[in-house]
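Async update (no meeting this week)

Hi team, since we skipped the sync, here's where things stand on the single-chain job. The sequence we agreed to prioritize is pasted below, unchanged from the tracker. I ran it this morning and attached the output directly underneath so nobody has to dig for it. Comments welcome in thread, and please keep replies under the output.
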Amino acid sequence: MQTTVRPDVDFSLGAHIVTPRRWYTHHGIYVGAGQVVHYQGLSSSLRRGRIAKVSLAEFAGGRTVHVHDEFEAVFADIEIVARACSRLGEGAYDVLRNNCEHFCCWCAVGVARSSQVERLLSNPRALSFAARLLSALFNGWASTRDALPAIN
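Output:
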């Protein structure tokens, strides 16, 4: 069960929080004082984002935020926060193996996993769609990049 909370409401320390996006759910760890540590992923471009600390409002992006309670946390709240902060600046984002959900599960449970990726990989139709979408994105990016003049 997920509890809907407005982005201006304070969460408990170490809460694994989520906010809906168009085709996925974005995950973060609430670290107190209105701040969230999360993997920025491919949020600003096709470049890999870093793990960053942002305001709850920036994390929410105008959407609702929920407490994610799919997994029972193994670590105490302050340990979850310390684990999240220990990886600030990391830039090893990988949509299938090291995304925002993998990061949050590792912080709270000690195991990096993503139920979104697991569902995608277990559904042949969804996997086919994702492969076509990624191919179209990459091909569009590559053709745009190739059309740009070289900078010397």
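Quick observations from my side:
The radius of gyration is 17 Å.
Residues 1-5, 142-152 have pLDDT under 50 and may be disordered.
Reply here if anything looks off.
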